[in-house]
Design goal:
alpha+beta; membrane; 2 domains; elongated; 13 helices; transmembrane
Length: 402
């Protein structure tokens, strides 16, 4: 038989209902969508968990020196190291500053390097981006693709690209949104204090979400990175690596601390587990075996589709149909059926990924389509093997058992 005749025969079988296409189509479409959707939702859940950690500054690691023996310039230069953080900066406690509007109420201050200001500004961008995404998602409009990245695909978020990192304006002090709200300050305001008039260079978000609360109600004052040592060095990195702790230890000035005052590395937000690893969670997720399960389901569907027509296939062989033509016809029917089911499942999975993924919907979609693709492959292979197993010699036995 010519290929056109085989295709025509397959289409007639589907149109007439002889191949029971609707049953296998629904089985493949529903199973493929459920398997792919389960995989997508699992990965999206991990993305949201990681995004929440980043928003809460759980990706910031600090080294604390009890004797203020941190090299501020070295701390700022950590971003230049291979595998270094996206932002880093040093800080130390400063003087109490009293606004003239509240003579009896002084405010603590912290002297920081330019790198610390960049880190605070970057954290504010991430927090604002996540908040806008959350409100948009809750309202049921728009796409959350601007959320904080949750995996190695962080470069997909504009807020994380080096070209879009906020500049460190060191022309004045920086204040938190809580402090700015209480005193009516904003970027560009002039703060009248007992230390003179100080311009407000920027406002940053510092929510009470488990992170270090010292910056919530304090003035962040730019200082020279090389004038004198600092007490702490902060480094923001995602995904976090073991090398970051070594880099932070390199900022400690040698020969200053003794055995009782050695600097220690800790996490800025201690409410989150520091041993968290997004890569490990992804690699060990329960749904990683879904392609294998989907393949098994496809095999079962392929075998069942042929098994219900064994008598028909054996009779066709008895009437002179060649085995090769029969095989191609059955494969063509299953290809059309499974292809149609995939055509239904893919748009649904794409909509799910682009609607809910906070970081990289394309990567989530590629992971979600693996189970349906494995199911299609399993159905085609099983169909071929099951057709090859049908023998004309079993026609009478099949006829008796019908």
């Amino acid at each position: 038989m010519r290929l056109s005749s085989i295709v025509s025969e397959a289409i007639r079988n589907i149109a007439s209902g002889a191949s029971r296409t609707i049953i296998w189509f629904l089985a493949l479409a529903v199973s493929g969508t459920l398997f792919g959707g389960f995989e997508a939702l699992t990965i999206i859940g991990q993305e949201n968990t990681a995004a929440a950690r980043i928003e809460a500054a759980a990706d910031v690691t600090t080294i604390v020196s009890p004797v203020s023996a941190i090299d501020g310039a070295a701390c700022d230069r950590l971003i230049e190291a291979q595998g270094g953080p996206s932002a880093s900066g040093a800080m130390r406690e400063g003087e109490q500053i009293t606004p003239r509007s509240t003579p009896g109420r002084s405010i603590g201050s912290y002297e920081v390097t330019a790198g610390m200001i960049r880190l605070l500004a970057l954290s504010s961008v991430i927090s604002s981006s996540a908040s806008s995404v959350s409100s948009t998602t809750a309202a049921g409009h728009g796409s959350p693709s601007g959320a904080s990245p949750s995996s190695d695909s962080s470069s997909s978020n504009p807020a994380f690209s080096s070209a879009n990192q906020p500049a460190a304006d060191a022309s004045g002090v920086w204040v938190s949104t809580a402090l700015a709200h209480d005193f009516g300050w904003a970027k560009g305001s002039l703060m009248e204090t007992d230390h003179g008039d100080i311009p407000v260079a920027g406002v940053f978000d510092w929510p009470n979400d488990g992170r270090d609360t010292r910056f919530v109600y304090a003035l962040i004052v730019p200082a020279s990175a090389s004038a004198k040592p600092f007490a702490e060095c902060w480094a923001k990195q995602w995904p976090q690596t073991d090398a970051l702790d070594l880099l932070l230890n390199e900022t400690a000035i040698s020969g200053v601390a003794d055995a009782n005052t050695l600097p220690g590395v800790t996490q800025l937000n201690k409410s989150h587990d520091r041993r968290y690893s997004a890569a490990s969670l992804y690699e060990t997720r329960m749904t990683r075996v879904l392609p294998i399960a989907a393949l098994a389901v496809g095999v079962v569907i392929g075998i069942a589709a042929v098994r219900r027509r064994r008598l028909e296939y054996a009779g066709a062989l008895h009437c002179g149909q060649r085995k090769g033509a029969q095989l191609l016809t059955a494969l063509c029917e299953m290809l059309i059926t499974s292809g149609a089911s995939i055509a239904v499942a893919l748009p649904l999975l794409a909509a799910l990924c682009w609607r809910l993924s906070p970081s990289d919907p394309a990567a989530v979609f590629l992971a979600a389509v693996r189970p349906p693709a494995a199911m299609l492959a399993g159905a085609l292979v099983a169909t071929a093997l099951a057709v090859l197993a049908v023998r004309e010699s079993r026609l009478f036995r099949l006829f008796k058992a019908r």
